[in-house]
Amino acid sequence: IGQLALLIFFVGILLDEYRQRTVRWGVLGYMIGFGALLSLISFASPEHKIGEYKFVIKYLFIFPAAYYVGVWAGEKLSLKNLVSVFEVNMILFISFAILLWFFPIGFLINYRGMHEFKGTFFESGSFAVTLGIFLLAAFLLRLDQFKSLSKQSITLYIIVLVALVASHNKSVWLGFLSIMIMLIFMKPFLSNTSELTRSANLYMHLHIKKIVWIIILFVIIFIVLNSTLSEPIVSIEMLQNKMNNERGKALKIALHLLDQSDWLGGYGFGFIQHFFSTSMDKVIGLGGRVGMIFNSYLDVWISVGLLGVVYHLSLLWFAWDRRSLVTMAIPFYWFVMLNTNPASQSEYYFIFLGLSYGYIKYLNTRQVI
C-alpha cells in the first residue's frame, strides 16, 4: 500500500512539473537508466533466483519514484513543513508500534515467531533504522530553521529515543555514534562560514572537547541502559553467536561467492535468497523469505557486480555537502546502515538521499539561513 501511494504521489508531481516544464529529466534518466542496466546484468545470470522481478520492479519504478519525491521535497518544501512531516511520521510509527505490541493485529504485523517492538515494519531493525533517520533529519533541520527546540519537540525526541531502545537494534546507535565521530574529523574542513547553514555554524562554534564529552556521555548512557535491560541489546554471548552463526558466517560465505566469480559478482537479483534457502550450511536470519544479507554493498556486489556498488555510492556522493549538518549526516548515516543492514531495499533510503540532494539544490539557489 505504501509503495502504491508513493507511485501515485510521484506521478502527481511528475504531471504537475510536466505542465510547468520543470521535470528533472537528469534525475529520472540516471535512476531509471541505472535500474535498467542493473536489471540486464541480473537477467544475464544463468543462476537460479527467487523473486528476481520483485527487485527489477523496485529498481525501475519504486526507487526512482522514491528518490524523485525526496528531491522534490528537499528542494520545494519549506523547512518548517519538512520537519512537521518528519515529526508526524515519527508519532505514527511509535503509535503503531505501541498498538501492535499490546494488540498484535494479524493483517497489520509481520509475525516472525517473536514479539518485537516494530509496529508495521518487517522487523525491529527496519523500524529502528527508519525511525532513526527521521529523528536525525528532524533534529538537524530544526537547527537550521529554529533558534531553539520547543518543549513538544524535545518530548517527542526523547520518546523516539526510548522507542529505539525498545527495538533492541544496535545499528542505529552505531550510526549516531559514527556521525558524531565523523563530525570531529570534518570540523577542520568547514572554514567558509559565509556559506554554512545555521546548524553548521553552530557546530563550528562547538569546541572539540565538548563533542568528545558528548560522545563519552552517549556511550556511558548506552552502557548503563544495556546493563539494566532484562534482555541486553549487546552481550558477549550475542556477539559470539553473531560471529559464529549469523553475520560472521554470512560474511565468510559472501566472500567465498565473490571469490568464485573472480570478484566480479553478478549472480543476479534473488540469487542470495535461493542460495541460502537451499544451502546445507544454515545461517541464522537467511533463507526462507529473506532475500538479502546484512551488508547491502556486499549483497549488491554479489547480485549485480561492482556497477551496483558504484550506483549506491554515487547516490551518497550526490547527497553530500559540507554546508549543512543535514547533508553531512544523512549520507553518512546511510553509509553506516548499508554496511550493517540490508537497508538498500528501503524506500526511505532513496527518499532521504533524494531529499538531501534536493536540499543541496535549495542551498544553491536561496540565501543560506
Explain what the structure shows.
It is a single chain. The mean pLDDT is 89. The chain contains 16 helices and no strands. With 369 residues, it is mainly α. The longest helix is centred in the first third of the chain and has 25 residues, at 52-76. Helix 5 packs across helix 8, helix 5 packs antiparallel against helix 15 (325-340) and helix 14 packs antiparallel against helix 15. It is globular and about 60 Å long. The protein has helices at 2-20, 25-44, 52-76, 79-102, 124-145, 151-167, 171-186, 198-204, 208-228, 236-245, 247-260, 271-278, 296-304, 306-318, 325-340, 347-365. Helix content is 70%, strand content 0%.
Describe, in short, the structure shown.
With 369 residues, the chain is an all-alpha fold. The chain contains 16 helices and no strands.
